[in-house]
Design brief:
Blueprint (H helix, E strand, L loop, with lengths): L6 E3 L2 E5 L5 H5 L4 H4 L10 H13 L4 E7 L5 E11 L4 E9 L8 H16 L4 E7 L3 H10 L2 E11 L5 E9 L4 H14 L2
Helix pairs in contact: 4-6
InterPro entries: Acyl_CoA_acyltransferase, GNAT_dom
Keywords: Transferase
Protein name: Acetyltransferase, GNAT family
């Protein structure tokens, strides 16, 4: 889905993903980074250009490149998806970062920008997150956000190797957003 949403703050810039980001993503995404995704790992610049184009062409998905605000380095990607403006709901996902940014302020900064936009610009009534239950790193990151666990959808995902997996679902509602925002701001303050 082509879009013009750009979000900036806390050392990161989220800009519409485009073909110029493919080389930066190809440089760091490996099997460890791609773990838990439901599509095969793109390998090489051509495969990454195709992956970027697929993300941009998906209805209801606003795909972003995550950039270092000072240097412009591609840190990763994240997306809004299943955006339904009538129902006022969206999911956040398709998220992956270069390992050097794991455990830093990068993910809290991105989530703060995305959630602020979802709740305060779009007026969302629900923001959801899901992860393969085997992807313990992603499930832990979603839990740290303060998202409320809703349950597990059994045999909901198909992995690239053909195995089926379960999806853990989480959400944040408007009345929960102030506490989530405060928690993300505290994490950002703690990391400097």
């Amino acid at each position: 889905m082509l879009h013009d949403v750009a979000l900036d703050g806390h050392g990161v810039r989220l800009v519409p993903l485009d073909a110029s980001d493919a080389d930066g993503l190809a440089a760091f995404v490996d099997a460890r980074v791609w773990a838990g995704m439901s599509s095969p790992l793109p390998v090489g610049a051509d495969a990454w250009r195709a992956e970027v184009e697929r993300a941009r062409a998906t209805p209801g998905r606003l795909a972003f490149a995550v950039l270092d605000a000072q240097t412009g380095e591609v840190r990763g990607s994240t997306s809004f998806y299943d955006w339904d403006p009538y129902v006022r709901r969206v999911e956040v996902g398709h998220t992956y970062y270069a390992p050097r940014w794991w455990g830093t302020s990068n993910n809290p900064a991105c989530k703060l920008l995305l959630l602020t936009h979802a709740f305060e610009t779009w007026g969302c009534a629900r923001v959801a997150f899901r992860a393969d239950t085997r992807n313990t790193r992603s499930v832990a990151a979603i839990t740290r956000l303060g998202a409320v666990p809703e349950g597990v959808l059994r045999s909901h995902r198909l992995a690239p190797d053909g195995t089926r997996g379960d999806s853990a679902y989480f959400s944040i509602l408007p009345e929960e957003w102030p506490a989530v925002r405060a928690g993300l701001l505290a994490r950002l303050d703690a990391t400097g």
